[in-house]
Amino acid sequence: MSTVVALARAEAVSRGVAQPISTVRHLHIAGRPLVLVALTLAGEANAPLAAMVGDAPESGHLLVVNQPRNRDQRFAFAAELAHIVVGYIESFQADAGMVRAGGRGEERRRFTDAPQLFVPNPATAGFVRLLGRSTRFRRPTGEYAVDPAVPVLGRWLTFLAERTEVPGSCLLLAATQALALHWATGQSAVEDLNLAALMGWIDPPAGLTGEQAALAAEDPVTWPPAGPATDPTFDNEVLAPLITACSRPHRSPERQQVAVINLRNALRDQLTPTWKLMWRAIDLLRALPAGARVAGRWDSDKDAFTGYSEHLRDGGPPQPRRDSAVAAASRLNSLERTQASYAAQRAFDDPLVLAQYRLTGEAFGGVVTAAEPDRVDATGKRRKLRPLITVLTHDPFRIDQGTAVISPARPGQSARVVSVSGEAAAASVVLELAGGMGRALTAAPGSVPAIGERISYTTLTDSYQPRGSFPDRADTPWTHGGPPPVYVPTQDDVTEDWS
Questions:
Q1: Half-sphere exposure at residue 116, Cβ-oriented, CA atoms within 13 angstroms
Q2: Using H for helix, E for strand and C for coil, what is the string for 399-418?
Q3: Structural domains for the chain
Q4: Disulfide-capable partner of 217 in 172, 196, 253, 482 (CB 3.0 to 4.6 Å)?
């Protein structure tokens, strides 16, 4: 936890309401997200019990598994969910355009929008991942035949779950994480995983403080768990008898139908409060102004969505159970570079995020006290415009001389720390500027910070970082298992554990 967040949590306790820890929204919120609230059966590995899913507050589809231990009913649930989710995803594949790729004018195809799956918490995102793993290898023919939409659902859920590992990706979002990225509450991070309590701090009902609303959220009768786990008291006193009633042979179809209706009503009551909270959370997030670089990250999500759509269209295989050594190393390298870029982008977009780095010495802010905007460096083969500015900062300065820094106000311009003087409480930092001032030996108006201007600099960078060098799959060294075998579908695929 950063010092800024810790201070905001203390302020939340003092004021009785959550405090903002960002000035902009760092996530893309789709115009038509698909909300999924799921419940699983306690004691069974990822056995679906019920779900409410839909792309509008008034159009939630209730899916119920009368007997979660029954394999056929599980896959009937998966098929019903598949037709909703896959249909939603395919609705974004109708409109595409050409976008420029790289600096040479090449163009590539990209869908104009992408799907976005919203779930209540990271545990439900884990349910999505496991459901994808247990369905993507299934087949529509053979001994364990399933609906043709089921393996397609599994591939898409796996794709969405894997995108959650990419920093800044918004194809699959957990509401508690999205809210905690923008507000600090007066409770612990573990308690923030309770969506009702978190929303109580952020948007308490009239007449209640955030603490009182969060305390009320602990009542599982009024605010059932957001899933996928259920309340133990509900399991024992309500759910177990209803499932037994649905499984017991009845003398008449009418009694069987009544048992099913009672189970559906009970599960609907468990899901509806969270369903409503989800849409309130989406409205709260949507009301925040989007950061300047959010749209660019969403473009990356659209690129990934387009690429996987084409992979499926071309008959590509499902995602492997495990990455090969080369694929895993390449993916890790990509995630590390994306994480560094994401951290820089958030800091450039948001002064409150940048303040966290100022406290750790990775950034500093201050006032320009001197400037030489027309200074020219003539030491090389050709003369170069290299202005000098002096910044007086009261931040803890821990950046070494010669280090390159960037100002969020002028991201196209780099600066180099030339010298540092003064005391720890007030340091004068001399910076040499390069780039972003035009091609002439005279700086363009406004391109050099003026005396009296408040400005910040950071060592964070959003510049392009080349990917690491990795061998081809066929050249995987023996120390890492050698070349991985080519995937060939087998009968074992369809018997993979549900969990």
A1: 20
A2: CCCCCEEEECCEEEEEEEEE
A3: 3-319 (no CATH), 350-458 (2.40.30)
A4: 196
